[in-house]
Amino acid sequence: MIFKNFLNIKKSKTVKKDFLRLLKDQPILFETLKPTYKYSYSKKIIKKYKKFSNLRIIGMGGSVLGSEAIYNFLKPKIKKKITFVSNLNSNADYFDNKNINLNLIISKSGNTLETIANANTLIDKKEKNIIVTDAKNSYLTNLASKLKAEIFEHKNYVGGRYSVLSEVGMLPAELMNLNERKFKQFNNLIKNKNFINNLVNNVSTTLSLIKSGKQTSIILNYDEQSENLFKWYQQLIAESLGKKSLGLLPVVSSMPKDNHSLMQLYLDGPNKYFYTFFNVLENRNIKIKNDGVLNTHKFLKNLSIEKIKQSQMIATEKVFISKKIPFRSFRILKRNEQSLGELFCFFILETILLGRALNVNPFDQPSVELIKIETKKILI
């Protein structure tokens, strides 16, 4: 494991039996977490697309959040420009980008309204196109035929928010020239006692907090490049657990910026929340320029930005401990495919275990379908 996890919360009964049962009766989607998973695309076929340097990825929700998290988290390693189209926004800058040479369009159903609208607004005839979809006869399969686009199957047993380590996330990762095999840490992690203990303790603790009335989970994110990772996490938690009047509301706070806006509420407001501190330990050594530092603040001389940020995080944790505010803390030791793959596995397993313990189905989202039906009625 290349991340550290700390809990300041008293642990309740563990859910280790549930975890062992989950490993025994593995949902078929677990295949996507393993290095032996068979992708629907051929590495030989996609090799010709790796030469393109200006890509556009079009999708909604789980079809795009995972690849956006990968790009954002590992951006220092990626030498390509990737534009993500993941909402309806007629004022977005991506309408002005005329240099796109490859589109990747992803929708499990092949009929996602926003994806269809964006694809038909943005795609130019001169661009190459790849479409990933499950449906055999859908809008996107028909569009693929019209565009003479490459088409790859989105496995029907993989829900969007759990699809990051399938074609949905790994095809974009390969087009970014990342090593997809390094993301696949599942087989190693389930043999790692520290990982299992961390996972079980986090799940049991979260359950006890939910039962005590704390149903808002606030992520104090000290790593700007993880912003999209937590957008992915928000969907995973909210859409998987928000059923039967249960669930967790995941809120992401940008730190240390939010010390100057929201922290007062976190420290002295309603006692209804629990927290996750998150940071990546960077090697970047950007230091303050000593020449401009006044004597009143000479303690800042020779300090790096990362040292100041890390000190603020530690200080905030100490205040939380003194105020008996429940939190857990993640320190990511390296920024690479392996550490991100470990985080994907951890949060996916944690979510499924929480769903089982809360007696909700973590794999569906029935109420969202109602909005799709009503929207279509209005437009027709």
UniProtKB/TrEMBL annotation:
CDD domains from the UniProt entry: SIS_PGI_2
GO molecular function, one term: glucose-6-phosphate isomerase activity
Record keyword Transmembrane present: yes
Record-linked Pfam families: PGI (PF00342)
Signal peptide from the UniProt entry: none
InterPro entries for this protein: G6P_Isomerase, SIS_dom_sf, SIS_PGI_2
Gene Ontology terms describing biological process: gluconeogenesis; glucose 6-phosphate metabolic process; glycolytic process
Protein name: Glucose-6-phosphate isomerase
